[in-house]
Amino acid sequence: MVRNLLIALLLLGSISCSAQSQNPEYDAQLAQKLGADDYGMKQYVMAFLKAGPNRPKDSVARMKLQMAHLKNITRLANEGKLILAGPFMDDQPIKGIFIFNVTSIEEAKKLTETDPAIQAGSLVMELHPWYGSAALMQVVETHKKLHKKSFTD
Predict the structure, then answer these.
(1) Distances (CA, A) of 23 to 26, 28, 64
(2) Host domain of residue 111
(3) Over the range 113-149, which residues count as b (16 or more CB within 10 Å of their CB) and which as e?
(4) pLDDT in tens, 82-104
(5) Which of 23, 106, 107, 122 could, after both became Cys, cross-link 117 (CB 3.0–4.6 A)?
């Protein structure tokens, strides 16, 4: 009798736990479109942009290189390869971050090598595999609807 009661309680507990783990707002189509796993997450590569050894001293050269860097960011975002980018707002050696929509360091390295600031040695990138929300895949399209001005125009 006690054994049967214990089995019944275990079954009830497992049914209750599995019911609780299902998200009533889950959208299977959206999860598939964004490449989400069962936890709504996916793998990316995060880059820390650090000050490089060849920082331009001349303000005109620095601005020209920055504009080329920003145009490359826009191109990578439009291609769906760069999900998030932005500078840090303090004066530290780490200047900003990129989050690439790729799954390997090698792929991200190839993308970073297209950046004029990397090519010039003004920036260097430190790359790390990163696991984050697949919702980040919607940042670029949402951002297009939010900005009034472009950095590169």
Answers:
(1) 5, 11, 49
(2) 27-144
(3) eebbbbbbebbbbebeeeeeebebbeebeeeeeeeee
(4) 999 999 999 999 999 999 999 99
(5) 122
Q: What is the CATH number of the domain that holds 109?
A: 3.30.70.1060
Q: Pairing between strand 82-87 and 41-51?
A: unpaired
Does residue 1 lie in a domain region?
Answer: no
Q: Which two tokens stand for residue 76?
A: 């990578």
Burial of 69 (0-12, 13-18, 19+ CB in 10 A): buried
- For Cα atoms 48, 49, 55, give the angle at the middle one, nearest 5 degrees: 160
Predicted TM-score (pTM) of this structure: 0.81
The HSE-up count of residue 25 (CA atoms within 13 Å, CB side) is 2
For residue 6, what pLDDT is reported?
A: 47
Q: Is residue 20 part of a domain?
A: no
Q: What is the pLDDT of residue 150?
A: 82
Low-confidence ranges of the chain (pLDDT < 70): 1-21
Determine the longest span between alpha carbons in the chain, in angstroms: 86
